[in-house]
Amino acid sequence: MAIHKFRPEVYHDVLGQFEPVLRVDDGDTVITSTVDNAGHDASDTHVAHGINPQTGPFYIEGANPGDMLAVHFDKMLPNRKIGRASVSIASNVVDPDYIAEMPEERVIYEWELDPEKGTATLINPDPELGRFVLNLSPMLGCFGVAPMRNQGIAATTASNHGGNMDYNGFGAGVTVYFPVFVQGALFFLGDGHAVQGDGEITGMGIESSFDVQFTVKVIKKRINCPRAESSDYIMAVGNARPLDQALQQATTEMIRWLKEDYKLGDHTIGVLLGQCVKYDIGNVYDPAYTVICKLNKKWLPK
Amino acid sequence: MAIHKFRPEVYHDVLGQFEPVLRVDDGDTVITSTVDNAGHDASDTHVAHGINPQTGPFYIEGANPGDMLAVHFDKMLPNRKIGRASVSIASNVVDPDYIAEMPEERVIYEWELDPEKGTATLINPDPELGRFVLNLSPMLGCFGVAPMRNQGIAATTASNHGGNMDYNGFGAGVTVYFPVFVQGALFFLGDGHAVQGDGEITGMGIESSFDVQFTVKVIKKRINCPRAESSDYIMAVGNARPLDQALQQATTEMIRWLKEDYKLGDHTIGVLLGQCVKYDIGNVYDPAYTVICKLNKKWLPK
Amino acid sequence: MAIHKFRPEVYHDVLGQFEPVLRVDDGDTVITSTVDNAGHDASDTHVAHGINPQTGPFYIEGANPGDMLAVHFDKMLPNRKIGRASVSIASNVVDPDYIAEMPEERVIYEWELDPEKGTATLINPDPELGRFVLNLSPMLGCFGVAPMRNQGIAATTASNHGGNMDYNGFGAGVTVYFPVFVQGALFFLGDGHAVQGDGEITGMGIESSFDVQFTVKVIKKRINCPRAESSDYIMAVGNARPLDQALQQATTEMIRWLKEDYKLGDHTIGVLLGQCVKYDIGNVYDPAYTVICKLNKKWLPK
Amino acid sequence: MAIHKFRPEVYHDVLGQFEPVLRVDDGDTVITSTVDNAGHDASDTHVAHGINPQTGPFYIEGANPGDMLAVHFDKMLPNRKIGRASVSIASNVVDPDYIAEMPEERVIYEWELDPEKGTATLINPDPELGRFVLNLSPMLGCFGVAPMRNQGIAATTASNHGGNMDYNGFGAGVTVYFPVFVQGALFFLGDGHAVQGDGEITGMGIESSFDVQFTVKVIKKRINCPRAESSDYIMAVGNARPLDQALQQATTEMIRWLKEDYKLGDHTIGVLLGQCVKYDIGNVYDPAYTVICKLNKKWLPK
Hints:
Four copies of one chain form a homotetramer.
Chain A (H helix, E strand, L loop, with lengths): L2 E3 L5 E2 L1 E2 L6 E3 L4 E6 L19 E7 L7 E11 L3 E5 L21 E7 L4 E4 L10 E3 L3 E7 L7 E2 L3 E2 L2 E3 L10 E5 L7 E7 L16 E10 L7 E3 L3 E8 L2 H18 L5 H11 L1 E4 L7 E8 L6
């Protein structure tokens, strides 16, 4: 259960079978950092090319295809003062007939991040909102493992290996589970958001470089899509287009989870999901959209 | 500002231009009742045919095409002890390849409703959940006005006139706004659910007849889709298929709202929606799906 | 087997349970006319309000809910010289990010129709195409029966009762089959196009009033969606959104047809559809899209 | 303009930046072979792992990112007697509610291929169809170039680099154009079908190893999606989910083509596409669906 402090020097804008930057044991903890969506680090210096450059991959000893990798996010915080967010709403979240009324130019606003106070504050006052202040709610937008079929998939999109899910529920205290497709799993992470609305509908949260601490665990279990667990919820994640298919994947993975792990019958599952299920929308901006199907753990039989 | 106690004797399974059952003034309050999704009343007697039979229509004096009708739900509660809910998850919310593993037979569970304690309790113990108890969270699944273009649209589906939206946020204390398409608006309501998970993925909440009290108001304003307001949120509603289009409609209506009523500029809207928007999924079961785009009122400039 | 010459005086922009304009017997033929999409007749006079005003409804004696109505189009031709078509491509058929580059203004071009020569000719020469000439390929865009559940559905959209399918394969010589939902079936027709590309992507074909001759037949068979038959093909029609669902409906209805009427087994159907199926796109413009699943009759076992 | 006879020894089930198997000049012709979808060669021996193993990549001298690669298929024919096709219709092309009525077991039928007679004949007589005979219509299901952003994308899916498009119009005599993303373009090909219905709705055409002859050309032009040209048509290809988005991509690329290469104005394009466009459905089976937007070349101004 070692703790590794790892300072990245190389970044990848693709999740695939690259040379591991560090090998860690099952149960180990890693303290590292990520650059922002545009490759800028804690000093706001451009150090990585591409979109959502990833720290990693981390090779987890003992992780084999068919296993499940658990990644618990112990801590995550922006590690610099400047955050940037688009204020331009994406054309794919408004009616096609309304797009012509939307401004064409893409505009970025700057925010001052204060992790101690826990705030993000608009640097240039907005005419209506002034120096608008939001509470920090740090999350990672893109993280995951090397994909199936020896693919290398851009950090702009998502699939069953994780990737660019942009779900604002993936913050500190949450454990995310991935199917393992290659030896060592090869875990990547990046694209921290200090704050982000549902759907990431401007294509950005408040983007910043981050300090992140996470702990890995290998579990001998086969899953199909990412799953996650917070203090209150179990969650299944669907990454696909359109939203309908993302929701189908998430719901199906939740049903499998309840059947296989909790040994619940069809009717019991129907009671729980029919009356207690919640859906969250991760992103509706990236090439693959993300839907979370979640169930409060208080409803689960002990 | 009269208060009308209205006891329905006729029900419609289509929202359209039927003979009004009652004419009320702008500002009036109506106390009435609805039958359940299958046409059973407070005594569990079958009194109405079709699916989601509606009480109404109520003719609101002074409501003209191009106006907006505000319906505030003052109170709503199940008015009988028996509730019924399907435990069979719909085929359209799971992966097509997984459907063959789902049970085919549609199964209904009965619940005991206790409005005083505020609980719904499984009548026959589930093998895993026992006599499972949920808190009542009463909502109306289907309500709305006579549709545009002189149509008559079944109470099984939804469009910009409202209809079968099945959103679990539409309970007491909420005001819902509709575009008015015909003289008198012709407001209908029905399909009460004692409890319902997101998406209505078994095709039913815990269905019951209801007592409902609502107050109407005519506002001289043109809107495109239903809107709503709770103590905390403003909400815009998209009813369409697929989910993507429902979300596009809801987001577009929210942008219009912020522009026209709150006089916000594009960039201000981009800040608010980009970092603070929330999406809820009403239903993913009916012919038209429902997505809610909502914004906490605390973020709105005074 | 009477032949009725019927001159319409009233039109409906909704398909629903209106007073029949004519009662005909099973096997009868009707010779009538339709106005164009904007309600203009053979003399280009505005005689009907709404979009796609329909001639009818025709009450077919002996047609009962659960039956199938066959409508054979004996003849159809534009009955005036002037046709009109939009040249503005709809926003929902191009990439959301490309819409801002499309012209906003909706522009209509006029065409000279010559049924004897069988041509449509641009009246004002296009700078690139000059006096562009196309062969007439007359079709009806909107026709169908009174919908299920006592609904009244606008002639702008489509469902399992038919309606605004805008499929360029629905011309003379084709028989279209509808499920019957109400006594007398109540058949409507209108929205003739002299020419139309796949998908009706400008929202219009070359629109004209039409002379139409059709023959009806009642068949004691239950179907779920419209079906059709030409000299070469059997066709099943899906009307829904998104395109994927329209295709699913059409494919499912074709499978049912092959199973129930042709008594083919699953594997035989798999051979035929897997290697010989064709799909056509009716419209991708209207609220419900239309996909046709078709199979050449030469492949069918005798 | 050399002619290269190339006998493959290595295959890839991913399209990405692998070591070129052959370097050819702009204008050169390659005569080679492909294995079938399951990795079986002309002798029906299993020689390649994965799904749709690809021959290549071929490095084309002078092809640089931002260029367009033209691949003309001079000849393609099955090179063995045995073909195999599934008769099991995919769950995603039928109504979700109908899936439970479809057979679960996946069944493969064998076909005898006779390139001289130009026929495919069922080896085991079907109870209804007997020894059913179809005309060969050879096509390649999967081919393309190395993808953008240094990705490696499985030969089971498609994107703007081509890939598993499964369009039955991609046979001999057709030229397909690809955007070039990496030096040398890196062209791959495989997955030959002797016959295939629209949509590849059983997930397979009649699969066989193939002999293929193609000629490459580098053109200094930037395109966004694959394009193609046959003797009669120009075609633009959209690869995405859902079908709606594939159609949007294809239509957008066609509009760009008409604007940029044919220098047509918006209204001229609206005339041509509005009244003359045709859509074909490539596949509705793979992770990305394929739609072809095509226009008969006779309509294009000289």
